[in-house]
Structures are given as C-alpha cells and as structure tokens.
Design goal:
Belongs to the CFA/CMAS family. The protein is α/β, with parallel strands linked by helices. The chain folds into 2 domains: 102 residues, 2-Layer Sandwich (Nonspecific Lipid-transfer Protein, Chain A), CATH 3.30.1050; 270 residues, Rossmann fold (3-Layer(aba) Sandwich), CATH 3.40.50.150. It is 44% helix and 16% strand. The chain contains 18 helices and 11 strands. The protein has a 7-stranded mixed beta sheet with strand order 7-6-5-8-9-11-10, sandwiched between helices. A 4-stranded mixed beta sheet has the order 2-1-3-4. A hairpin with a 4-residue loop joins β1 and β2. The longest helix has 19 residues. 43% of the residues are buried.
Length: 419
C-alpha cells in the first residue's frame, strides 16, 4: 500500500492537508495551503517504533518529515485526528501495511531530545542538580535566539493584552504592571522574583515603582543578560539578578514575592515546601503573586514524562490544576485574595512568538540549528492550540501573609483593573 493511502485512511480525505511521500504517492487536496512531506523511510521508522506524537516529532525535528505552510494551521486541522487517538486496532493495521522493516531499522534519537539517563544520574526529580540541568536544556539555548522570538521585552511568560490590537511589547508591559499593582508595590519596598528569567519583572519594579528587587534564575545565560541590561538601564542600585536556585536565597522579610512561570518546574511533591518557603520569605502583610500554566482540572492528564514536551522542551515539567495550587498555597498559610485565568492571553502571546520565529527563521536556524528551531516551531504552535481549546490554562493567584491579628492590609474592594 502506498504511503498516501495509509495517510488518507488515518485523516480522511477532507482534512485540508496535502500529503506527499518519497514513494511518489500523494493525497489530500492539491490546493491545500499546508503540506506534510515524508522525505525518507527513516521517518516511517521513527513513527513505527514510537507511534504517536514522539515518533512524529522525531521525524520532523530530524528533517525526515517536512511541513510546508503554517505549523499552527496544520496542527489545528489535525487536532481531532491525532494519531494518539487512533484506536490500537487501527495502529496495528497501519503497522502491518508499513511492514516490518521500519520496526527493525536502527535510527538515532535527534540530539535535541533530552537524554533521560543523564537526568537520572543527577538524582531524583527536582533535586537541585537535576533542576539546574533541566533549566539549562531549555533556557540556555541562545540569548540572541530568544531576542528574536520574544522581542525587546525578553519576557518568556504570558502577556496581558489590554486590547485586541495591542502589540506584544504593550502586552508584556501590562503583564508586569498588573503583577506590580496586585502586589501593591511602592517605593522603598523589597521584592523577591523567583525564576526571574531575563529580569523583566525585576527591572519593571525598580524602574516604575522604586522597589529594591532581587531576581534569581537557574539559567546562567539569563542572569548574565539581565545583569547587563540592568546596568545599561541605570538600575543597578535597585535591581539585581543572581544565578542561583531560589531555595538558596538567604535574605528574608521581603514585602512581596512574584513567581512568574516557575511553578511548572517545581513538581507536585515539592509544592508544599515551595509555598512554605515563599511564605517564610515575606513580612506579615506581604503578598505573593503566583503566575503559572495549569491543567484545566485535576482529571486532565498531566504532562507525560514520555511525551514530546518532556523529552524536547521542559524536562521534568509538571502542571497541576488551579484548585490544587490554591489549596497548597492556602495550606502554606496564605490567605487567597484573588484569582484569574488568562489562557486566551497566552494564546495571543504565542501567536506573536510564532510570528517572530517565522520572521527570523533563517537567522534562528543559523544560530541554534535547524533541529532546535523546528522543536520551537512545533512546541509553540502546539501550545497556542492547547490554550485556545482549553487543554491548558494560565492562572494568576494572589495570596497574602496575614498579620498576627488577622489583618490582610487589602482594600475592601480592589477595582477590577487593579489601579
């Protein structure tokens, strides 16, 4: 059976996707604006040996499958017919049609895939050394690459769009300012920003609120970039970013703590100690703003350790439900005062990042290699779709450490836009 016939049996004739293969076969509409090209039998070996998203990702990242056209468009059209949803009997039938050779062919893993044996040698999940390696894998790709994808803000977290046509920079500014206003930052306060990335929140708090801000990150490249940016902005008296694990911060009695995009790396078993640690870092009356990606509920599957995201993007990443996170914050001593879901904003943020990568594609490939650029193209387009269809969410949760007498220091009714 020709490869095109197998493809058409999986996706149907009306998927809006063109398919062509090295055996000369084609399927789908010849006028489709997206095309999957199977370039060699090695692609079949990857898919046959790991049926589902991992096999397809390996074939694409290694260049044995090409995608012509927009990746998001392709994924959205095929979302309801993902191969992982194909019944086992159909998978077995497809493997029979392909034959035994792809199952026995030796094919190397793409170098972009995390060596799980390497992580295991560094200890249990979320041990300090293993966390450092996981963060290094994702964040120490190339600062120049991130500048192209993220834009001038260098903010690698969900932006907040004040209006539909806001630019990415306007939306990232709005996000940092929303966090600052929820934390009620004022001149002279001290802020701890854990998992600070390239220092966006630290610099925003120092520049616009006169706050003395300390940020910490496990990425050496991020810390070096941030310290240079802080110096160039003339903020060295107020802002600092350190290359260190948040658990090694010795200072305490901060007025506020922001955690923007770190909780996903903490791990379910470590959440109680994580929130307790942050609670102990605050003065009475201090606030924590926790901003992170979540599952939509406790029933939706977590990030699979064997899946594409864990193997190629966020090693050891874990997502919990918003209810679970709020419960852990509450049990650590925080009184929960506000919560909101910003998932549509993350879909819009990712749309901009995908466009930025496409606009700098040739430069990005030259900087980090075609395989790594393809990992990012696939992961960001898939994440955008995930937020749009409510497979993943983005929640901000505000908690306060009460004074001994129970005072929260919160206004009776904060306005909806947190002025």
């Amino acid at each position: 059976m020709k490869l095109a016939e197998i493809f058409e049996r999986i996706v149907g004739p009306d998927a809006g996707v063109r398919f062509s293969a090295y055996d000369g076969s084609t399927a789908g509409s010849p006028d489709a604006d997206v095309e999957i090209v199977v370039r060699s039998p090695i692609a079949l070996a990857y898919v046959a040996q790991s049926p589902g998203e991992v096999g397809l990702a390996r074939a694409y990242v290694s260049g044995h499958i090409n995608v012509n056209g927009d990746m998001y468009t392709l994924l959205s059209r095929m979302a309801s017919i993902a191969i992982d949803d194909v019944p086992l009997s159909r998978k077995i039938d497809i493997l029979r049609q392909i034959g035994l050779k792809p199952l026995t062919m030796r094919v190397p893993l793409p170098p972009q895939e995390v060596k799980r044996s390497r992580l295991s040698q560094l200890g249990r999940r979320h041990a300090k050394g293993r966390d450092a390696e996981a963060i290094h894998h994702h964040y120490d790709v190339s600062n120049r690459f991130y500048e192209w994808v993220l834009g001038p803000s260098m903010a690698y977290t969900c932006a907040v769009f004040p209006k539909e046509d806001a630019t990415l920079e306007e939306a990232q500014y709005t996000k940092f300012d929303l966090v600052a206003r929820k934390l009620d930052l004022k001149p002279g306060m001290r802020l701890l920003d854990v998992g600070c990335g390239w220092g966006g929140m630290v610099m925003h708090a120092a520049k616009h609120y006169g706050v003395k801000a300390l940020g910490v990150t496990l990425s050496r490249q991020q810390a070096e970039w941030a310290q240079k940016a802080i110096a160039e902005a003339g903020l060295s008296e107020l802002a600092e970013v350190r290359f260190m694990d948040y658990r090694d911060v010795t200072e305490s009695r901060f007025d506020a703590v922001s955690s923007i995009g770190l909780t996903e790396h903490i791990g379910k078993d470590n959440l109680p100690s994580y929130f307790s640690f942050l609670y102990d870092k605050l003065k009475p009356g201090g606030r924590l703003l926790n901003h992170c990606i979540t599952r939509p509920n406790g029933f939706e599957p977590n990030i699979r350790a064997s899946g594409f995201i864990n193997r190629y993007v966020f090693p050891d990443g874990e997502l919990e439900s918003p209810g679970y996170l709020i419960e852990r914050m509450n049990d650590a001593g925080f009184e929960i005062r506000h919560e909101e879901n910003l998932r549509e904003h993350y879909a819009k943020t990712l749309t901009h990042w995908c466009e930025n990568l496409d606009a700098h594609w040739d430069e990005a490939v030259k900087e980090v290699g075609r395989g790594t650029a393809r990992v990012w193209r696939l992961y960001m387009a898939g994440s955008r779709l995930g937020f749009e269809v409510n497979k993943i969410q983005l929640h901000q949760v505000l908690g306060v450490k009460l004074h001994q007498g129970g005072e929260a220091g919160m206004p009776l009714r904060p306005s909806l836009d947190w002025p």
